[in-house]
Amino acid sequence: MAQDGQSQNIDALMAESRTYPPGPAFTEQANAKPGFYDQDHDEFWEREGRERLSWFTDFTKLKEWDRPYAKWYLGGKLNACYNCVDRHVENGLGDKVAYYWEGEPVDERLTITYADLQSRVIKAANGFKSLGIGKGTKVAVYMGMIPEAPVTLLALARLGAPFTFVFGGFSASALGSRMQEMECEYLITQDAANRRGKPGPLKPTADEAMDMAPTVKTCVTVKRTGPDVEMKEGRDHWWSDVVDGQDDDPKSCPCEPMDSEDLFFLMFSSGTTGRPKGILHTTAGYLAGVSTTHHYVFDIKPDTVYWCAADIGWITGHSYIVFGPLINGTTSVMYEGTPDFPDKARWWQIIERYKVNVLYTAPTTIRTHMKWGTEALQGHDLSSLKVLGSVGEPINPEAWIWYRDNVGGGKCPVVDTWWQTETGMIMVTPLPGVTTLKPGSATKPFVGVKAAVYDESGKEIAPGDGAGYMVVKEPWPAMFRGLLNDDQRFKDTYWSQFSDAYLAGDGARVDDDGDFWMMGRIDDVMNVSGHRLSTIEIESALVSHPDVAQAAVVSRSDDTTGQAIVAYVTLNDGAEGTSEKLTELREHVGKEIGPIAKPANVVFADSLPMTRSGKIMRRLLKDVAENRELGDTTTLADPSVVHEIKERAESGKEADKEG
Length: 659
Ligand code: PRX
Known about the structure:
This protein has 659 residues and is α/β, with parallel strands linked by helices. The longest helix has 19 residues, at 640-658.
């Protein structure tokens, strides 16, 4: 269990005993009241599906489960864009704000109403249509946090074109391989994104990626920052040329009726091999799942101002910046930049300016704010806040309490939401009017989510009886429907360890009250600043450098990023482990995968600890990285190797302190 060595974290989580029952005033007005869990699951999802979504053709059957294949809302026809945009305008909510968009430059702000959003989306959809995009056309999106990002997703949804959004921090080869795998024909991008006052190029990276993905024949580029980028004749178009002159009448571009189970989008995620997994999400179940959880978990009211501070390029952005909130007709804040630009008070200014009621962010960001101290918060009126959310990794009780006390003024419930790209929607979470909160616990499975913890043999571990594998026993509406081009991998990774449950890949335990405590990944997946990366992916990137003979990657605990990447590298003869080489290898990984994957530490070694059968013993390297006693070394071919590495790592740390 917990091979990824979050043991310190786990100890802290296990030792936590503070509890925070819901306030009666909150419960009184809450969307989910006591008794919420007593509902019949199928009736609940049937009702939510009917009432929360508008259907062109009603569904005839709630679900079908032929393990591991699920279908939801069978026979139904609907359109995501119609549900997110058009019907709100038809219902008289055209003047309601959909997004308060705040650019990174302090003076750049836009208020986008639902009517504005509709006009922008229809123009974009007409523009895309004029280039040949239609139902079933596969499109890649590579953008930052600009209004055109949700507009693009909605326009594609309107046309029935499945998309994959690749996070703007990914490299050319990461984007290229994803487009290639999906066989995308189009790419929508922007020239560059604002990043701490400087343009971070996207189109030049996209150009390199398109060279790797010959199926992409057409690219549309939003001009955001300048200066000019290269435009390839016949392939590249400016967004303004394609979109601006288009008709914005809804009749000019009707919403394509999609089957409930039509492919909606693909999100690539790191797995335990070098090849990223193309996680498939379909239409109706996903939309019902994300909008329902959004409504109850964040206690959304008609006048709520909601801010999910994730990036649109991750599943959190898809589910809880775009589709969940828009289906619910919510007013959201969307911010382009980083929390420290131009200074560390930026977030608190935004909350004050828009009177934000709900903030949803990641533990790593909370810990970063903690490190900066509370000065930046001083003088900002954050009293509008009502609910605080956390997602992406286990939140340590210290950060949880800091968040509650300093951001939430000691009065806001903190909802620690556990879920995954695969689950599509929040799965284990407090409900702010119902749940007694415990710092560090994601508490209870959402209605209709049959989560459990299993031991090695597939037996359910009873509450209070210790830790095991996090599983889900029944299908849920927003669950992924498979992996692109790899059904065997889908079965092997998630459905083969236990015959009757979905294997999430996390360790967990349930306490005596039935509350879940998530303990991090049990496989070779790391979680760095809430980003999922596999050790093998980074090892492959390292060995693709001509000087690297062998590489082993592990994670260690880090106060800010949760986990940090440590790479042990042996070099080819003739290459030297200098500090320049170290920088070069970090840059190389950044270029191969993206800056988020750069190792925090690189340790050069003459050889790596191997078993006699030639397997690298990552467990021991992990002990070195965590600076703890070495575990059992008896199975090593040459135990002296790991002792040498340990000495080298320790002398490296001393040198760091001195230097
Ligand atoms: O290990 C769990 C962790 O993030 C993984 C899923 O990562 P990803 O698919 O990138 O989705 C992140 C956003 C939903 C999980 O397997 N994780 C996510 N939320 C939590 C968490 N770990 C503990 N507590 C959470 N609240």
